[in-house]
Amino acid sequence: MLNSVFVLALVAWLQAHPAAPSFTGNWTLDPSQSVLADGGSTDIELLVTEGSNGLSVIQRTPRSEEKYTTPLDGTPKEERGPASIYVREVRRDRGALAWKVKMTRVADQASISFTERWTLSSDGNVLTVLRTYPTREVLKVFKRKK
User: Fold this and answer.
1) In a domain? residue 6
2) Domain with 48 in it
3) How buried is residue 107: exposed, middle or buried, by Cβ count under 10 Å (0-12/13-18/19+)?
């Protein structure tokens, strides 16, 4: 009897606390589903890995490759490149990843802040990234590469 009560309690707890979805994968942009800024590349690939150190992202386009790693607990992480300084804060929010990003150009110290919200489809094969700037939004929809 005690074992049955324990199993029922465990099942109830697991249903109330589902496992966080994994964003790990190789993703390619679906331009037909995306709403991009003028002049934005439509040939984008994301390589995402979740691990004990947080989230590692490699974003590749035909002209560039950007790599960064950030914790998933909302701790700010600064990364300096030759042209820009990024400060990223990422945390889980009801199955999504909520980002706050500040980018500062090294040359003139001009900066812009934006947010992103990463969500996965129920089957885990579509990653939607909504980037919100002060005056506009950019929607990128990625499909999991098989």
Assistant:
1) no
2) 20-144
3) exposed
